[in-house]
Structures are given as C-alpha cells and as structure tokens.
Amino acid sequence: MRRTTMLLVSAAAVALPAVCFAQNARPAAQAPANAGGKVAAVAAAKPEPPQKEAAGKKSAAPAKTVKVEFAWELQDQRSWQMFFLLDAAKRRLGSRLEMKTIPIISRENGKFSAPRGDIEVAESRRVAVLSARYPSKVWDYLWARTFNASEGAWKDAAVYAGVDPAKLEAAVSKEGDAELEKAWQYVSSRKIQGTSILVNSAPYQGDLSLVAVLRSFNSMLGKEARLELPAAAPVVVSTAAPAILWIVVSTGMAGADQDAGLTAGLTRILGKPEVMAIPYELTLQKPEFKELNIDFLPYYFVAATPDTEAVFKPYLDNGMVKRNGRYFIITGGTSEGVFLNKERKPGELELFVMAHCPYGVQAQNAFVNAINKGLMPKDVKLTLHYILSAKKGADGVVTFSSLHGSAEWEEDLRQLIIAKNYPDKLWKYLEARNADYTSSLWDKAAAAAGIDPQEVLKNFDSSKGLLEAEAAYSEANKVSGSPTFLWEGRTLVGGIAGLKKIPGFEKVETVQGGAAAQGSCNK
Description:
By secondary structure, this protein is α+β, with helices and mostly antiparallel strands. The protein has 17 helices and 23 strands. The strands form 7 sheets. The protein has a 6-stranded mixed β-sheet, with helices on both faces. A hairpin with a 3-residue loop joins strand 21 and strand 22. Helix 2 packs across helix 7 (210-219), helix 4 (138-145) crosses helix 5 and helix 11 (358-373) crosses helix 13 (426-433). The radius of gyration is 26 Å and the shape is globular.
C-alpha cells in the first residue's frame, strides 16, 4: 500500500476501495486542525466528578475489565481502520480489555454471503472458528493478516498465532458453518448494518480517534485497574479565516468529478475549509488560474498562506503536495480521473494489476469470461500492465519489489513474456493460472495453454527490462491500486464497478468465486 496516498484519505476515516495492506500499514494520525495563524489556548475540559450513589444502594464492584465486541467486514478498509484503533487500545490496556471479534455475514436461502465475495466468506469462517476454539490467539492471527491479506496467506498468520494450519482447516471444514451461523445470529439480533463497536454491550458513541478511544475504555475501569494517563493537551483554535479548497472538475468528461474520500480527508486536515468546485472550462478563462497548468481532473489546490503551509509541510516533504506559485497542489490521494494532455488511444483498454492480488486476478477472470462469452465491445484492444517498484542501485543493478512478495513480480514477468511471445495464448494461460494463482505450479498452466515452460524460463532474465518499463509506466499513470483501468489513454477508473460506467463495458461481469470487484490491493 502506498502510504503517502493514505495520509490524506484516512485522516477522514472514510472507506477506500482497498483491502490489502502493505507491511505495517496503519491509518494516518489525525492532523491538527487550523494549524498556524493567530491562536487562542482553550483549557482542556476537566473530567466530571463521580456521581454520588443513591441512598440505600450498595456500591458496585470496581470494574477490572472492559468488554469490547467488534463486528466487522473482514475485507473492508474502514473495518481494518477500526481494528488498528482497537489494537492500539489493546496494547495499552492489555488484559483489562476483553476483546471479541465477530464477522459481519449475511445469509439468504441457507447460503452465507459477504459484500466482497467468497474470499471474504472463507476468511469470516476461519475467524469465527478461531474465535470459538482459540479465543486467546485470534487477535494475533488478525495482526499477522495485516502483513499479507492475500487469499493463501492465512496459513502463515495461523502459524504466527500458534495455531496448526492443518488443524484449523479441519476445524473450519467441520465447524465453520455452525460458527458462521452464530455470527449471523449475533449480527441479525442486534440489527448491525456495518462495522460496529460495542462496549459493555452498548454501542460506542465516542470520537473514533486513538486517545479518545483509550480514554473512554480506561474511564470504565475501576480506579485500581485504571491507567494513569497524562492530561489532554490544550485545544488550539484558529481565528484566521477558513481556507478555500478549490476542486476543478468537469461534468462533460466521465470520471472527472471530485473524489469524495479525498475531499473529506482534506476538509478534515484543513479544519473545515470552504469547498469550491469549479468547472475546468472556467479556469481556462480566468487569468489567476493560468499558472496552475492543470493536466489531470479532478484537480485540487489551496491558496498558499502561513496556515496552509503549516498544515501541508509533512505532505510537501513526501511529495504528495507541491507548491506552484501562489498555490499548494494536491498531487496524490485519488486513483480515478481524466488525463487532459495525454494522446488519445482510440479503442484501447489498459488493465493494471498485481499478479497475486485477488482483485487483480478477479479482473483478469472477468475478461476471460467476457472473451469466452463474446461480451467484449467490438474492436477493443485489451492490454495488461503490472504494478510494482523498480530501483536501480549504484552498481546499476535493478531490484524489483511487489506488494505480495518476489513471487508476485516473477509471475508479472512470466505474464509479460507470454504476452510478448505468445499473445494468442495469454488469456488461455491466465484462465488456467488463476485457478490457483499463488501456487508455484505456473508451468502446468503454461503447458495447459500450449506454451513450453522452458521457453518462458529461457527468456526470464533477458526480459527484465520489460518489468522495469512496467514499473515506470504505472507510476507515470498515477496507478497504485490493483485493478485499475485506463481507457483510451485518458480515463482512469478503479475496479470492475468503475469500468462498467464506461459505455460498452456494461456486460463485463464479476466472476463468482473471487473477491469483490470494488476491492483493490494498493502499492
């Protein structure tokens, strides 16, 4: 996951279409609102004195633990943000927190389902069994899953948690549906519709920030069990006029509208600015906007002031925000939009994936299905591209890295070699390969497609230049999420759901048995 992309978006605690996490990826800390400018210190509110007991009632025993029940969708971005929040509280409060995790699951006509397909159902089944059989180990399992959320990585997570994967698999096969039934009963009886935190059986109503959650849980403990936390820092309130967040959009171009997640994130860190959406055509007429050099829509910018400079300093350092004369330009944070100055490629659809991303694999499978059933628009040229990083060392040697490990970029390269040397057999190979895409038995898939595996191996080292070019190409096109589509060289959309908005691709369907179309893995 590209952490710089997450900084602005996760500050708003909004859901993104990303579910796979890079190693140790965490939600960004909340940025201070209205930093800089004239300020006035406001004293932190003092805690209310304890209520006196009613006459004749005995004092309740001091609480030694707080019971937290976490109902969530196991492949949902916002759910994982809440997991990280609870995990941080658990690390401070330790055994004072009784943590229980419940997968949110649906059931219809006796069959269980989840928003992101069979992969999410399978993971929900495992977590439900872990919670029942190994309650003290389930949290370690989930922690390990944050390092690799791909379909087959659950075995490593089980080992990390101290659970034999074979025994877990056997238990899931035997008891999985019964435990899912219990989870469904829990969710249904409480009318839970989305990610929910219950504290001592009551819905958590406080602020979803790290310190607020910790203080809330801590306050429910008896005095002897409670942590001694430092007093809250004074709240800083700016007296300066609110910033104006300008968003350049176009109603005449598909995909050129504002990104709701990015808008919410910027609104959060700028301290509720005035949001002004303006049409691209208007910026061409206004002299004050000429220096912006707008080349991609939506285009976000803010006037440079001492206040906004203080807010954006960390983002300037990592390149997500750039200074352009009188303005700060937000260059990252959105994965969909329209390139204005790129050459149009009529009828060309480019699909960017990671070879071991379940969502990228599902997108490939969707096209295998569409090609086999004749559902593709006529005269469309479909090209595959790959998302990875390539770095050249001082010795001139290029090293590659990919979100799901070295096995992923090696598979990327095999697919590139097949696309170059056996273009008419590529989709046959993918159809066979994607049946078990994380296995090492790629050669069997190649043979099934009529390709000599030895010919692929023979070209492996000499073809690494193709992989280096792919890394540069995905970066140049602002692509970090798998799958992403680039239509006719200009329109960038994420996932099958985004592709179906483009005329001609309405019949491209998600193939059952994989993860949800709106999911993605992010660099």
